[in-house]
Amino acid sequence: MNTRTRTVHTVHPSPLGDLLLTGTVSAAGCALTSLTLPGQRGAPAVRAEDRDDAPFAAAHRQLDGYFTGRPIRFDLPFAPAGTPFQRAVWQALDGIAHGTTTTYGELSARLGVPRAELRAVGRALGANPLLLLRPCHRVIGADGSMRGYAGGVENKVWLLTHEGALQPTLSWVDDLATRPAG
Question: What is the pLDDT of residues 37-85, one digit of tens each?
Fold first, then answer.
């Protein structure tokens, strides 16, 4: 039996820029290990010779669907590296429906994490290697604020607006307010 695996990557063009997807390929198929946004700190280092687009065909199809506006529940094999606690937090994200948000406190309660350990949930969310696929962008502050996002708060706002969880801002109204009358 061949248990050999190899690590590969691909790039997926998106309205946010080129997304970097990494995964491990074995006889069982490709399991995603990360999805990072442009400019994200901690993005995995990849080698050009390890690029292989073919194993990511299903991920490309589902991401295309997401970015064209279809509500998608990503149905892909994941193999992120993390502690058992981190993996439990990341798995809980799968239950946050497209177009909705939850708070850090609500997510902690769902996981049975005491309020005193709320920061541990926040740290686990910050370490999520599968941004967008495991939708940590749907977790917001109890006051509605856009707390940190490893992919950048501006991308978090874009994603939530794209999903319909936030209303688009009308920046031209701000422009009108600062223009001289006349």
Answer: 998 988 999 999 999 999 999 999 999 999 999 888 899 999 999 999 9
Q: Is the pTM of this model over 0.90?
A: no
Neighbours of 118 (CB within 10 A): 16
- In whole angstroms, give the CA distance from residue 80 to residue 115: 26
* Active-site residue (options: 136, 140, 160, 166): 136
Instruction: Tell which phi-psi region holds residue 54, choosing left (phi > 0), alpha (psi between -120 and 50) or beta.
Output: alpha
136 catalytic? Reply is: yes
Q: In the sheet where 29-36 sits, what is the strand order?
A: 6-12, 19-26, 29-36
Distance of CA 80 to the CA centre of its chain: 13
The answer to whether the CB of 121 falls within 8 A of the CB of 104 is yes
